[in-house]
Amino acid sequence: MSIMEYNGGSVIAMVGKECVAIASDLRLGNQALGISSNFQKIFPMSDRIYLGLPGLATDVTTLKEIFRYRVNMYTIKEEREIEPETFAHLVSSTLYEKRFGPYFIEPVMAGLEKTVSGGYKPFIAATDLIGCLNFAKDFVVAGTASTKLFGVAEGLWEPDLEPEDLFETCAQTLLNAVDRDAYSGWGAEVYLITKDKVVKRTLKGRMD
User: What share of residues in the chain are helix, strand, coil (percent, to 5)?
Assistant: First the structure.
C-alpha cells in the first residue's frame, strides 16, 4: 500500500464559462477502516482561490496552515491579493523545497484570474507531491479515485458550461467515481466559484 492511499480521499476541479468548480469527498479513513465522514479537504486561500488537498491527513493539516501563512505574508508584502497562477507557483515551490522528504499531498487549485480587460477567466492546476505543475483547460483530478475521476470526467465534461451545469457535472463526476473506490466517498462538498459569489454545497453519498 502506498502512503498516498493511507487516509484515502479524492479531489476534482473543473472549468466552466467564467466560473470554476472544485469538489472533494468527505471520507477520512485508516486504510479500509472509516474514521470520519466529515473531513474537510478544500480550503479557501482567498476570495477567488480554493485549494484541495488529498493525501495523508496529517500533511493536509500542516500544509493548509503553511499556505495560509505564506498567502498572508504575500498579501502584506505586496499589498494586493495573490493571483491564482502566482499561488500555483507558491504551492509548487513549497512542495519542491521538501522534495527529499516530501509532503504526501497532491494539491488541486481552482480560482478566477483577473484579466487585463477587468474580467475574470477560470484557472485550474494540480501538482504532484514534489510540486510538478499541471495546468489544464478542462479538469484536473487527484487522490485515490483519480483514475475513475478521469474516466467519468472525460465522458461528462463539455466546454463553456454555465455555472449550474458545471456544478451538476462536477458533482455527478465525483459521486459516480468515488462509488467505484473503496478509499473515497461518504458524501461530498462542491464549491462553485463565479465572479459574483462562491456557492458551497454538501452532498449525500453512499455510506457503504
Answer: 30, 30, 35
Rounded to whole angstroms, the Cα distance separating 175 from 180 reads 9
Measure CA of the first residue to CA of the last residue in the chain; give whole Å: 21
In order of 36, 48, 58, 130, the CA distances from 17 in angstroms are 35, 15, 35, 31
Give the pLDDT score at 1: 83
Residue type, 131: G
Q: Which residues in the chain land under pLDDT 70?
A: none
pLDDT recorded at residue 118: 87
pTM of the model: 0.96
Q: Read off the C-alpha cell for 26.
A: 468527505
Record the cell numbers describing residue 69, joined without a space: 501563512
User: Helix H segments across the chain?
Assistant: 57-78, 84-97, 146-156, 163-178
